Amino acid sequence: MQQWSVKVGEDPEAVKEMRAIIYPKQEGEQFNVKQKVQSVINPAKLQIGIKNVKNISKGALLIECGNEENLNKIKEEVESNELLKDEVAIRSPVKVNPKIIIYRVDDDLNPEVAIEALKEQNEELQNGDLKHEHIMKTPRGNNWILSIDPESFQKITRQGKVNLGWYRLNIKEYIRPRQCFHCYKYGHIAKNCLKQDETICMKCGEQDHRINDCLNNRKCANCAFLNTRLKTKIDLDHDIKSRDCEAYYR
């Protein structure tokens, strides 16, 4: 699922999301921000419309308005209201460029040179803002993670491939997977883990002990599972939370 809604042909800088995040000023402070804000701010009194309100991580509240004028009224009220200004702050969401993964890039390519080549060989990327993020080494070649501006992202992901040197390589949107910090598997988070009663070692993936007590060799349990399921020979000698883990990119 693509995370950006900028239409092709639009200037991403001109596309403004009418959203703001309200969050506790004191980190770790526990109180219901949504309840507090809704008990103090009256949208009817401010003569504004609210499109959406939802709780997000770290106790914060995301508010979406229909236009910039309404959003500014919310910001002014939060910053000036005597019942709010000492307890909560408000800011615009931080925009993070989407990322793509390019599969099986030549080992000898220099990232800076390759980015220029990508722009020269792909019309969709000629004016793109590309930044090299990470190289993942796998038995089948190197996979590259690049961040890219939203407009170029929309164009190039529709192609599904890029020209780079003598090759036409597969690409797709890269979305960082959720990883549970209890069992270390992907696809869920710790509070939803079905293995809450089990103790699992981050170093070797075995049960009934933690990393501080581990006497085993390092082994990524997620890649070991892939080897069993797919009959592959992925290297297991890495941290289960490593970004060089092939399971991380699958």
Automatic annotation (TrEMBL):
It comes from the Eukaryota. Transmembrane segments: none annotated. Residues 180-193 form the CCHC-type domain. The keyword Zinc-finger applies. Gene3D superfamilies: Zinc finger, CCHC-type. The keyword Zinc applies. Keywords: Metal-binding, Zinc, Zinc-finger. GO terms for molecular function: nucleic acid binding; zinc ion binding. This is CCHC-type domain-containing protein. It comes from Araneus ventricosus (Orbweaver spider).
